[in-house]
User: Which sequence fits this backbone?
């Protein structure tokens, strides 16, 4: 019985140390990709920058820099890839589902051992239930994040539609400006024709007046000369 108690105490201390080490990883700036969320690794701290790669749920990354104003963190992923991700998509601990799978394996292993201590299985079961509750909470958070992602995608789609409308309006404006230039040319040509026609009309009137001015006196003089002959 004393040996079993010592074994249970040793295992409890070991589990406490493991939990303490997991807590200390937060201070080492180690983070994990959020559970069930598409984590995009980008070249810069905004959704406008190019996507470097997709991080899988539970992927461990090293935080190199934080931009609190924009809500992004610069990280180094496994394999050496560096880029920016949304800070809210990072977790201080591994994915709850991965921990749950590990605990399931531990429970299976503990139950398969006939001589294994029952205290260890009880502790693991307790932690299993705790993580199950955490998964429910994480899934609720994920639902909120997914709604945010849908809103972001809708906003991006609206921005693309607005940009398309803007380009279409620019093209229409270019066409209208070309038509305006053409109308101005036609107006200038028409004005030139009108001025020329008025010039010709004035010249004709002037010529007719001069001609009449020369002919009328002669006609009157001939009439007078005829009357004088009588």
Assistant:
């Amino acid at each position: 019985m004393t040996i079993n108690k010592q074994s249970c105490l040793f295992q409890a201390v070991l589990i406490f140390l493991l939990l303490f080490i997991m807590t200390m990883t937060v201070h080492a700036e180690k983070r994990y990709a959020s559970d069930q969320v598409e984590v995009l690794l980008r070249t810069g701290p905004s959704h406008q920058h190019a996507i470097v790669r997709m991080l899988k749920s539970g992927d461990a990354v090293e935080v190199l820099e934080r931009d609190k104003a924009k809500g992004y963190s610069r990280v180094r992923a496994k394999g050496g890839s560096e880029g920016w991700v949304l800070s809210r998509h990072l977790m201080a601990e591994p994915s709850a589902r991965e921990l749950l799978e590990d605990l399931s394996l531990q429970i299976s292993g503990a139950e398969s051992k006939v001589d294994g201590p029952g205290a260890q299985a009880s502790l693991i079961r307790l932690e299993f239930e705790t993580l199950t509750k955490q998964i429910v909470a994480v899934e609720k958070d994920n639902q909120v994040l997914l709604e945010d992602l849908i809103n972001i995608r809708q906003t991006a789609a609206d921005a693309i539609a607005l940009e398309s409308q803007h380009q279409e309006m620019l093209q229409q404006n270019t066409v209208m400006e070309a038509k305006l230039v053409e109308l101005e040319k036609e107006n200038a040509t028409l004005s030139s024709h009108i001025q020329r026609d008025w010039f010709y009309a004035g010249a004709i009137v002037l010529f007719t007046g001069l001609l009449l001015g020369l002919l009328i006196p002669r006609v009157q003089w001939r009439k007078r000369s005829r009357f004088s002959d009588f």
